[in-house]
């Protein structure tokens, strides 16, 4: 905590210097600058200590303040990095001047900070400020449809051209605009998928987060069904309450899947038949390599009654499950659909460049991965969590067209 506080204060000292030099403010500027920042820091600390993530009001407040904090913090980071670089230059210049004899006798050791550098740092800081502001106001509902054709030599002939749409990580408790959510669901339905897969995290914590969106989510239908699994947030681990209250909330979340028309797969499988041929949808409960997340997934139980060579679509919320348990399993899982990472909700995903801070935590964090003739796709999520926005990692609807043959 002390190190973090020192880090933030150091950044603010640098930014304050840039603002003071570039703006040449006269009255009250330092009180305004430090007053606003101290209020923001104290508010974040108070909300986190008082409520944490288990109390819904605290979670919502924390999300709003976190949005404001990130909106200003990342631009500050840009300013401080530039001024820190300039200070390095000033130190080197001072050393050179002192020992080369080029310095002025009555001048200070360090050359003065240059005004244009401060102005440039503030100008460049406007870039992340604008991007984050867009991410908070519009980006979180800027739904992206990604279409992929996937080829499998052993795909049953009847399923050649079969379309599967995936959404993941709704986090309904974070939504704040019904019309935008409706737009996203309408966009999903426009894809006319044969089957829809939802790969977990229906809520942040509480079952009743879904209630305002029941009418919208009830429209999610597909010819061969809508299949769902649980994510780590669906297990009531993050709520305050007694053991009995948590159990009741968890049961209610599971019941909601049925009320929405979703076929919830709890370490089980379902046969999809078309023109006399079969593929299997397999769904496991949450399993993660992290000890902080539930490990209820049982892959062996989930494939009960299926032959190892049968064509299978696996739904597994956390992509770490794929490397730890799926790839080297006795059964072949042709395509695994996961979510959980949100793509970090911040990053760059354009042709030739794919980066997010989340990749320091997750090896498979967004997009398509292939190993041992098996595929994993990690969806960036339909909703958002904590930070109330998305920057560069837009909410995603993925449509897979299964093809017979080699790519």
Give a verbal description of the structure.
This protein is an alpha/beta fold and 407 residues long. The protein folds into 2 domains: 2-137, no CATH class; 144-404, Purple Acid Phosphatase, chain A, domain 2, CATH 3.60.21. It contains 9 helices and 14 strands. It has a 6-stranded mixed beta sheet, covered by helices on one side. Strands 6-7-8-9-13-12 form a 6-stranded mixed beta sheet. Helix 1 crosses helix 3, helix 1 crosses helix 4 and helix 2 (29-50) crosses helix 3 (56-100). The longest helix has 45 residues, at 56-100. The N and C termini lie far apart (52 Å).
List keywords for this structure.
407 residues, 6-stranded mixed β-sheet, 2 domains, Purple Acid Phosphatase, chain A, domain 2, 9 helices, alpha/beta
Gyration radius from CA atoms, angstroms: 26 Å
SS class = alpha/beta
Number of helices: 9
Biggest sheet details: 6 strands, mixed
Q: Could you name the ranges where pLDDT drops below 50 across 5 or more consecutive residues?
A: none
Shape: elongated
What is the name of the CATH class of the largest domain? Alpha Beta
Number of domains: 2
Head-to-tail CA distance between termini: 52 Å
CATH topology of the largest domain: Purple Acid Phosphatase, chain A, domain 2
SSE series = HHHHEEHEHEHEEEHEHEEEEEE
Give the name of the CATH architecture of the largest domain. 4-Layer Sandwich
Helix content: 25-40%
Placed side by side, the strands forming the largest sheet appear as 1-14-2-3-4-5
Chain-averaged pLDDT: 89
